[in-house]
User: Fold this.
Amino acid sequence: MYNFDKLTDRRGMGSLKWDVPERELPMWVADMDFETAPEIAEYIRERAAHGIFGYSIVSDDWYEAYMGWWKRRHGFEMEREWLSFCTGVVPAISSAVRKLTTVGENVLVQTPVYNIFFNSIRNNGRNILESPLVYDGEQYSIDFNDLEDKLADPQTTMMLLCNPHNPVGKIWDRETLARIGQLCARHHVLVLSDEIHCDLTDPGCEYVPFASVSEICRNNSITCVAPTKTFNLAGLQTAAVVVPDPVLRHKLNRGINTDEVAEPNAFAVGAAVAAFEKGESWLDELRQYLYENKRLVRTFVKERIPRISVVSSSATYLLWLDCSQITEDAGELCRFLRQDSGLYLTAGEEYGRCGRQFVRMNTACPGERLMDGLNRLKMGVEAYGA
Assistant:
């Protein structure tokens, strides 16, 4: 029904992703090359046609759309008062770090992890504390001994959880999340769960909202969610923060209001409502398309670039490529690929020191464009090793 094969042209549109020279193919930042669901685009056209763009409110249907979507899609029943509007997940994370931790304290992250986490910690004068995930050559898991040792440090007061995990595409299961929740509660560490990729799971795979796991998890957590990654709406600056505990919620609301990131623009509320109320069939087709794209990458790489291995993934449209058989410095490889073939990928070290031999590839594009990227990758790797 929806045409994800359409080759969109984003050059000259102020796109961060596509602000590159003509010969380059960007497959780096987590931004899809698909038009959003037509139902959302139609809402935006109708709203724009009104012609007046004054101050906006967070309307009742915004709350209902979030609550209905999470109950329907994820089996999690939110209460209205738990929800607060925010202009984005990253602003919410930075506000929470500022409001709920103190300068000089540790904020724990599980590396390799979304690189902007580091900015939210470092820019606010807190210490980044890494608990590296364990890579067995195929997939990642948690070293719970290391995690508990670092949570037990009295200077550690917050953990940033990435659920599902970016960049490795891991869906944390209920047992794992429960164990994280118990450890954090035991050591008085607040969990801030970034769940922005939650709807982009492989068909047949489902993520588990951290706050849904147990009373312990619910009462000691802040969850950041949004339609932006799912429906390619990041430029509209629309997100939500879910905080069941009333004391934490009060503090979080003071933080996002102090930072002036709690007011919607003229399109932010209605676009989210349109996404959650009318975008379900589009999303289901998108998930299947993304799954096929990721399968294509795995097959191509296995057959034609065997010195690279693709880490097992069940969520996001991002693939984590193990380049350890080619180089010890994948950043150098990325620079070479961009110069030699025009393929623009992200160096894994941006996600933590343990990502130094990896690169991240964004596969959310039409199949023809993806094949172009894969052929560039093959030629670039061959040239790099020549």
